[in-house]
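To start, one record:
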Amino acid sequence: MPRPDRSAERRAELLPIVAAAFAELGYRRTSTADLAQRCDVRVNILYRLWPDKRAMFVDSIRHVFEGSLATWEKRLASIDDPADGLAQLLRYEGRHLGEHGLYRILFAALGETDDPDIHAALVDTYGRFVRFIRVQVAASRGLGPKAGGQGVELAAWAIVGLGTVANIGRELGLLSPRQRERLLTEVGALAAQD
C-alpha cells in the first residue's frame, strides 16, 4: 500500500523556517543549501516539496499575510464590539509590528517585481492586507463589511502604508519603539476616521 502524501503538511512545517531565512538573508543571498541546512533536511527534500527557490520565496510572501491574519483573528475573537476591532489591532501592531522581521520578505520581493510569480504574490498579499483592514475600518465606522466605498478603501491603504513606514523606521533605526507605536495607534486612528 502506498504511503500517504504528506507534502502539504511537510511544506507547512518547513515554511516558517524558510520564511525566516528569506527575512534574514533576502531572496538573492539565500541559497537552497542555506534553506536545507536551516530546515535540517537535504536539498533534494526541499525540491520534492517546491519546484524551485522562487516557489519557496513566493510561499514565504504569502506566509507573511497568513501569520498576520492568524494573529489578528485571535485578537478579534476576544472583542465584543466589532467597532473596537480596528483600534485593538492598531494598539497591538503598535507594540508588536515587525518583531519577527518578516516584513523584510515583502521588502525583498519589491526588488523582484519583474518576476511574474513574485509580482503576483505581492499583488495578492497586499490586496489581502487591504481587504482585511478595509473590513475593520468599515466596522469601526459602524458600516457593514462591504460598505464604505472608496473612503474606506483609501483608509485601509493608508494604514498599510503606516505599517510599511513603521517597518522602515524600525529597519533603519529612524523611529523609536514609542514613535512606531504612536504612528500606528494615533495616526492609524486618524486615517480610519470618516
Remarks:
- The radius of gyration is 18 Å.
